[in-house]
Give the backbone structure.
Amino acid sequence: MTRQHAIDGALAHFDDPEGFFEDLKARVAVKTESQNPDRLPDCYAYLEEQMRPAFEAMGYACKVYDNPIEGRGPILLASRHEGDDLTTVLGYGHGDTVLGMEGQWKDNLDPWRLTKVGDKVYGRGTADNKAQHSAHLAALKAVLDARENLGFNHKFIIETGEENGSDGLKDLVAAHKDDFAADCYFASDGPRFDVAKPNLTLGNRGAFNFDLVLDFRDGGHHSGNWGGLLANPGIVLASALGTVIDVNGRILAPCLLPPPISETVRDLLKDVDRQSATGGPEIDDTWGEPGLSRGEKVYGWNSFEILAMKTGNPDNPVHAIPPKAVAHCQLRFVVGTDWENIVPNLQKHLDDAGFPMVKVQASTGGNAALFHAARTDPAHPWAGWMRQAVERTTGEKCRMVPNSGGSICNDVFQDVLGIPFVWLPLSYTGCSQHAPGEHILWSLTREGLELVTGVYWDLGDPETAYNNENDTGRTAA
């Protein structure tokens, strides 16, 4: 059997009406909303009823770990050991989703029912991340069917709390480090930056949510009798925000800025041009840090966003000066940003700018989010090997970006396991993840399955296998 036999087998499973579609249909039907505490049993069910049988059928040993944080989703580790002298590869996927948002989908589509409309396949969790880790399972089975072994050791994590910031995952892996130990990491999540061509991603931006709060007094007061006499918190907060970011989206507060873009990162991004996806919003090239390319803005720089802002009652305004204003903010940040001191440093910035009454607070509860920025060195042998594996399938140069624009748990693999990580995204930027209408492109998923199968075949082929003896241990650039 050959590499092409394995790829053909994977694609045959994909094209079989009773194959990949039915596998994904069953997985999407499990309502794994990790942000809904009532769905915790569904998260366990996804691991026990969907993932465990699929992995065990391929000769993997499976263990489900309770999350060390009460109320957070469990984690499954599937392991297949073929030889002490073989490279161990770690994979990852997350089975949880954001809320289904029933009733908000176009044409009243059911988010928990897989629905194909042309090349788009709708369902909550399709793009993020059930179709992507399902492609890995299908690719692994195709390699095993063709070769009867992988030719490498393999471990695969399925967590069910990624949409809650992967709370507990880092502590769990640290407590069971030997269980999760590996030489390198390969997984799929997130979108390509160009739908027409594959790319590799070497890490992620971090994310930190915080609130700017202005609380002047108890209760509202008549805007006629008190207008001109009482400070309006909405106006003051808007003015304070003007010292943090300007009208064109340029970050003004130095404490929220990253270090200068390195030449290594700039070189990776020189040919990266983020395009708007079909049906997506038009890119505003006047927005953000001036002088940067689109790729540099998303993959090499920080972005500050106001996710929500409230003063008074927007749904039912009354003729009263509101007592309070709050802005829910987020910083997406690259490696090297001093995220740990955002709260005190931004508070000092506001104090110095004349707004000591505006208080900076780390978000809590459902508004909280914290992901660490992490990145594999582009010069790491694992990054080079992965690029070559993808190019064997496409016959074209595969582009790499230093990190995704979004955030995920790469710091677990960097800080706890100390291994290099590379992602091969199988979605696209117009997939509507986290929104009503989440979907995958069927043709893109099929192509992704072909690419993933090629990577797994090459890992176990003695002629192309990754030699981790060349691994220098570099995990950050």
Observations:
- The longest helix spans residues 126-147.
